[in-house]
# Entry
Amino acid sequence: MKVSLLGVGLLALTTTIGFAQVPAAASAVPMQRHASTINQRREHQQQRIGQGIRTGRLNARQGARLERREASIGRQERHMRAADRGHLTRTDRVRLNHRLNRTSRTIYRAKHGRVVR
# Structure
């Protein structure tokens, strides 16, 4: 009985210490977290477009149009970074996320039978 109580107490202590360290590590690099989120979204949307073409849900013309939109977002991101020494401002992130949201919605609609414009 004493051994199991000691084990539970030790487990609770290490878990508490582990949770206490997570926010400090996450706040150490806030800008990098946002940039990776945008890059991850772009990669995921590229995968969704490719998957749609492979499965036949998107035809070549729709895929090419969506790829051009993604390339345009990439160019816009590069220009925004160049204007601010390699960083994205909060406004830049908001604008990029807005475009990514619209493109994501267009990918969904294209893959599920709606017309792409």
Remarks:
- The helical segments are 2-27, 30-55, 60-83, 90-111.
- The longest helix spans residues 2-27.
- The chain is about 85% helix and 0% strand.
- Confidence is low (pLDDT under 50) at residues 22-29.
